[in-house]
Amino acid sequence: MGIVERKEKQKLEIRKLILDASMKLFVEEGFEHVSIRKIADLIEYSPTTIYLYFKDKDEIYLDLHDIGFANMQELNRNLEGIRNPLLRLHKMGENYLNFGVDNPEYYDLMFIQRAPMRRLNEMPCSDWKSGDAAMLGLKNTVRECMEQGFLAKSDVDLVSITIWSTVHGLVSLVIRGRMEKFVADPEQIRPVLMQSLNFFINTLDISGKAGK
Fold this sequence. Notes:
Blueprint: H1 3-29, H2 36-43, H3 47-53, H4 57-75, H5 85-102, H6 104-111, H7 115-122, H8 129-147, H9 156-175, H10 189-204
Helix pairs in contact: 1-2, 4-6, 4-7, 5-6, 5-8, 5-9, 5-10, 8-9, 9-10
């Protein structure tokens, strides 16, 4: 390995170290309580070193937000093999719910915290690439459901946003501690989420072909 390659490898390692330390502190202390100084202290570097890699804390949020989307998309990698698009849509919903419940801090950054979008809007290219890629997969599946008669022909964008809003609402209720006010047994929260998803998907299915 040459000097240039070695330096680049070291930069990537330090960047990952910063991101890992930041996420650890976010989980332990909450996003609002973490500072660049705390991140630097944890990895035993100076705050100046952090600023060589990230403009500010919002930029760290944005990178972690992108990692979260990549992790969620990984869950859907093998769904293209499901030929029935309504079943595929259902599995996408299950993956979304499971990801949100299992990764509340990442989910918070991806869909609730303002900081990542604030930093994104400051950038020359402010397209929400991570979110757009996830939404494109949903839209394509919804469109396929309509083409095959599983869903009534309608505005694909509107239907997709409605589906996303529904599963997002369910996850948000859980990670913000609201669902436990209605479901006394914590072990039953995930089954309730899946039952809610089943009910919602069944209301979308106009053809009766969901199980075929």
